[in-house]
Amino acid sequence: MLRNLIVILCLLGFANAEAAHLVGGEISYRCLGSNTYEVQLVIYRDCQSNGAPFDDPAIVTIYDGNNNFIQNRFLPLESSRVLPITAPNTCTSLPSFVCTAEGVYLDTLILPNNSSGYTLSHQRCCRNASIDNIPNPGLWGNTYTIEIPAGISCNSSPKFSTPPPVALCLNIPSNIDMSVSESDGDSLSYSLCYPLHGGGNQTTATGPNSPRPDTATPPPYTLVPFSAGYSSNFPLPGNPAFSLDPQTGILTGTPTQVGQYVFAICVQEWRNGQLLSTLRRDFQFNVTNACRGTASNFQQQNTDPYQLCSGRTVQFNELCFNATSFYWDFGVNTLSNDTSTLANPSYTYPDTGVYLVTLVANPGSACADTSQQIYRIYDRLSVDFDIGGQACFDAHAFNFTPKGNYSDSAKFYWNFGALTNRGSNTSTEKTPRNVVYNLPGTYQVSLEVEDGACREIHLDTVELFSRPVLKHDLSSPSGCVPLIAEFRDSSEYSGGRLLHFWDFGDGSSSSQANPSHLYEKPGTYFVSHRIISESGCIDTLFERSDIPIVVHPKPESSFRVSPAKTDIYNPNFQIALDPQGSNVQTWLLLPDGRRLDPRQTEFIYTAQDTGRQQFFQFTQNEHGCLDTMLIETYVSYPFRVYIPNAFSPNNDGKNDFFSYSILGTNEFEIIIFNRWGERVFQSQDLTNFWNGRIQNSQENAPTGVYSYQIRLRIKESGESYFKRGYVSLLR
Q: What is the DSSP code (8-state) at residue 139?
């Protein structure tokens, strides 16, 4: 009981949801024995609409034969699907935008035998407002009902065998199977009938006027009226009109008007002259003109005069609809093999002419369709021309000669791309001659040939060049050997590649446009430059410089220093300068930064430090040419180690420190140990001597013999040095 109450409350929550847009439905049942029935409710809705989805569950109300309320049953949604789009025949296809969904509800109930039987009813609103054959279609709802007869043991109602079609095609004959299955062997009778009304469009109402009544009203039910010109037997325009075979349930007719039409089919079940039940299918037909059958069509010939004369070989392309096979006849009356079964064949005609081309789509079938077009075949029109004449502007006159494939009656239209000596830029001559342009430049020349219905254009380019002008920078730099000279070309030229030939006057040459050259010997040199053009205005120009390039000699520095190496105990070097000419200046820079008096030819220099000693000589001649010379000598670092063997740290001012003397090191460390191997002193400072105290700051070390270790690196050679010895501490 609690579960049923929860279900009822949930259903009331959806009572105001309007199921726009229902397109039909039906209800049937099957006896399972022992007063048990399986009830099936089928609902169809427009799945392209924005209405509510299928109810889940759906309410079926049960009355007895005297219209007394028995109970409400909540049928669960067993399954749903989108109905397949099935064309009325194999030659037609339906549009993809049509969509109808089917919802199937199933439940099992027990109904004891009674004297009046039962009525099962489901009511729901609303219908599509766009329906054409009923007035105010949005105000009418739906009732799907069926009877269970009294006095009949375990009767099953008829049941439709197939779902209704999603759409009908305008002007396409329809043959629709509306037959039912009937398991009891009862007699059946089919007829067109009225749809039934149920539910209301008042979304705020409850009860029978709500879109989803919680309890269906009892019979009898209101018939949905048809608009003027329509009836239950003429539910939609057709020629021939739609009719239902009363024995087979086959619905036939050809719709003649696009629209949406409601209709109903009633199937009466009889046994021994007694009407047991009436199965009613309420449905909405959608008649569309978007259906298409097989249609033959192919690409038209391109009649553009610039494309028409493309030769005798033609590519054909089919544009058929609903076609899977093809038959082409290319229209050559003298041939029987001018055919093809390819979809997009290519065919070469034996001759020019006018041909009627035929394409049959789906040949040999009931859906075959034929189309024809005229094709005009011409030989290929090809155009080219030669240009004869000099490319230099100051000596040009062009002769234009056409060539290609065209007839003797062809017409010629030249455009030279600029004004010429003819006073215009066009000509209709076949071979224009002695054409002279007014200005140099690059011009596009076009020749259009008109040959009957065909036209063809060829384009080429004429280039007129000015004479080349030789220009360059032949400035004559003077300088000291070695001398690098730069040369720059600035010649004026238009056209193809320009060849360069430079002669530097010293036996060397270059083919670069902007070369540089190294003069390695003193002398006087004259440079020449030649250019040769390979295309355009072909010419050769040459020029030799009148101003030479002068390369001056360089003086030579010369002096001697000895010895090459000495030590700090004798850091003296003897310097001797070789004599120079009267036009040569020379000076010597000493390692200490001083300059030697150039009047001195002999000099003693005493080094101020150990290490490398660099002597620089600078020599300059009367041309300002400079020469340098470097001599390096070396003053070695002396390496000497003196370590005393005793000291007496008694503060008498004599021998108070263990004062060793070490020269020629830049890394040093001494460690002193007592006789037990303990460190009493350690230092890396050559001037920090042991004073006889522990680490030079603690208590006095006792009198005795101490060992020491000295590690150092010899400054000059970089070698490591190690010494171990003993020192006596006396007090």
A: G
- Domain pair 382-464 / 559-636, same fold: yes
- At residue 640's C-alpha, the angle toward residues 637 and 642, to 5°, is 155
In this prediction, residue 609 carries a pLDDT of: 84
Long-range own/partner contacts, residues 417-424 (CB < 8 A, 24 or more apart): 417/443, 417/444, 417/445, 417/446, 417/462, 418/443
For residue 428, count other CB atoms closer than 10 A to its CB: 9
Task: Measure CA 274 to chain center.
Answer: 75
Backbone φ and ψ of 416, nearest 5°:
-85, -5
- pLDDT tens, residue by residue, 280-336: 999 998 888 877 778 889 999 999 999 888 899 999 999 988 888 999 999 999 999
Three-class DSSP category at 48 = coil
Give the separation between CA 572 and CA 562, rounded to whole angstroms: 9
Q: Coil, helix or strand for 195?
A: coil
Given this model, what pLDDT does residue 5 score?
33
C-alpha 623: how far from chain center: 70
Per-residue pLDDT, 688: 93
pLDDT of residue 92: 66
With a pLDDT cut of 90, the percent of the chain lying above it is: 59
- The per-residue pLDDT for 347 is 97
Where the chain has pLDDT below 50, the residues are: 1-20
Contact 724, 670 (CB under 8 A): no
Superfamily of domain 472-552: Immunoglobulins (2.60.40.10)
1.10.8.190, 2.60.40.10, 1.20.1090.10, 3.30.9.10: CATH of 382-464: 2.60.40.10
Rounded to 10 degrees, the C-alpha dihedral 204/209/215/220 comes to 180
Superfamily of domain 294-377: Immunoglobulins (2.60.40.10)
Q: Which amino acid is at 222?
A: T
Tell me the CA end-to-end span of the chain in Å, nearest whole number. Answer: 123
Distance CA 2, CA 658 (A): 114
Sequence-ordered list of residues with C-beta below 8 angstroms from that of 177, at least 6 positions apart, any chain:
161, 162, 249, 250, 251
The span from the CA of 376 to the CA of 352, in Å, is 8
Distance in angstroms (rounded) separating the CA atoms of residues 176 and 165: 8
The CA angle 89-99-122, to the nearest 5 degrees, is: 110
Q: How many residues in total does the chain contain?
A: 731
Cα 435-436-441 angle, rounded to 5 deg: 120
**Two structure tokens written together for 686:** 């050559």
Q: What is the DSSP secondary-structure string of 374-443?
A: EEEE-PPPEEEEEEES--BGGG--BEEEEEEE--TT-EEEEE-SS-BTTSSSEE--SS--SB-BSS-EEE
Residue 492 DSSP label: B
H or E segment to which residue 9 belongs: helix 2-13
Instruction: Report which residue type is found at 443.
Output: Y
Residue 375, strand partner residues: 355
Q: What is the phi-psi region of residue 178: left when phi exceeds 0, alpha when psi lies from -120 to 50, beta otherwise? A: alpha
- The bridge status of strand 274-288 relative to strand 22-33 is antiparallel
Query: Which two three-digit tokens encode residue 413?
Result: 């239209």
CATH superfamily of 559-636: Immunoglobulins (2.60.40.10)
> CA–CA distance from 65 to each of 68, 122, 223, 269 (Å)?
7, 16, 20, 17
Strand duo 479-480 + 549-552: pairing: parallel
C-alpha span between 93 and 326 (Å, rounded): 19
Strand partners, 335: none
CATH fold of the domain at 640-729: Immunoglobulin-like (2.60.40)
Question: Could you tell me the pTM of the whole model?
Answer: 0.46
Q: Which residues contact 673 (CB under 8 A, 6 or more apart)?
A: 679, 680, 706, 707, 708, 709
Strands 720-729 and 646-647: parallel
The domain spans of the chain are 2-288, 294-377, 382-464, 472-552, 559-636, 640-729
